[in-house]
Structures are given as structure tokens and as C-alpha cells.
Amino acid sequence: MIRSITLAFACSLALAAGARTDQITDLFVIEGRVLELDVVNNTDKPASKVQVIIYQDNEIYVAFFTQANGYYEFHLPLGHEYEIQFGGDAYVNKRAYIDAREVKPRAGQTEIALDMGLFKPIENVPFEILKEPIVRFAWDTEYGHFLPDLDHAGDMARELEKTLRKVRKTGTTGN
């Protein structure tokens, strides 16, 4: 289950580039759900009130908490780089990177749907790989929407899965 969520995250970063309106906008939307993963028992559930911090051009832009069902949504200005950090003190943090520098104001609304699976810290397991964004998005002018770097996301998912397999093998649990 966790592996499928990890790989589904890498491959089904449910991108929705759609027009909700014909109005010109200089914003895009990032939205999704945060799930709490039990890496030992391979289960998940919605993660309530998870901290999300959005950095714009390497400066804190906004910080907020997900809803009780793990859902979040935020409108961000085009023309910037973003790093979104999910987790806070309660979880092993994961990051996503979005390069929106080349996106011009356009008719309709551009969206990135991004679900994120988080898990509690595990004693003596550092998860060094997660210091890097688990997924990176860039604007694709040919398709007219954000696309994830699937090679990078797949590599990150495989490396994370290696670490999680070791955790499952030893039966180590989170704090």
C-alpha cells in the first residue's frame, strides 16, 4: 500500500490544467490532500492539521495547516520559484519544488493537484534523501501546464522505498 502510494505520488501527481474561467489571471492553484502513512503496517489515513510552509524565491511566503481531512488549497502568483514543505514537527518533512518563473498570465486557472504521504519520525532513521524535493514541477510551454519531472520523482520514490523496506524488515516504529 505505501509503495503504491509512493509510486502513485510519483506517477499520478494528478495534474489538472483547466480553465475555470476565461478571465486573465496571474495566479495558479496548488491543492491536494496530506495522508499519514504507517510505514510498518502499510496503511494510511487523512492527516489532520499538518503544517505546510510555502517558500517563494527562498523566502517564507506563507505557512498554514491542512484541514481536518488533510485537504489544502492555496493560490500562488506566477513568475516565481516555490518550495513547499509538508510536515512540521510531527512528521518526517517532504518537499515539492515548483518553477513558475516562465509562466505568463493567462486565461483560465492553472492547477497542480499534489497529494503528499507523510509518516512519523522513526528512531535512528535519518531519511537524508528527503532533504531534497521529492517532486519537481516546471512549466511546459508546449502543453500549457505544469509537468512533474517523472524521472526525478521515480528516483526519489525508489530511494525512499529502499529505506522504508529496511524499516519494515526490522519492525522499527515511529516515535
Summarize the entry for a quick read:
The chain is an alpha+beta fold and 175 residues long. Helix content is 18%, strand content 43%.
Write the layout of secondary structure elements.
Blueprint: H1 2-11, E1 15-18, E2 24-25, E3 27-38, E4 43-46, E5 51-56, E6 59-65, E7 71-77, E8 81-87, E9 94-99, E10 106-107, E11 109-113, E12 116-118, E13 135-140, E14 145-148, H2 150-170
Parallel strand pairs: 3-11, 3-12, 9-13
Antiparallel strand pairs: 1-11, 2-10, 3-4, 3-7, 5-6, 5-8, 8-9, 13-14
Helix pairs in contact: 1-2
Overview of this structure, please?
The chain has 2 helices and 14 strands, in the order αββββββββββββββα. With 175 residues, it is an alpha+beta fold. The protein has one domain: Immunoglobulins (Immunoglobulin-like), CATH 2.60.40. Strands 1, 3, 4, 7, 11 and 12 form a 6-stranded mixed β-sheet that branches. Helix 1 runs antiparallel to helix 2 (150-170). The radius of gyration is 16 Å and the shape is globular. 28% of the residues are buried.
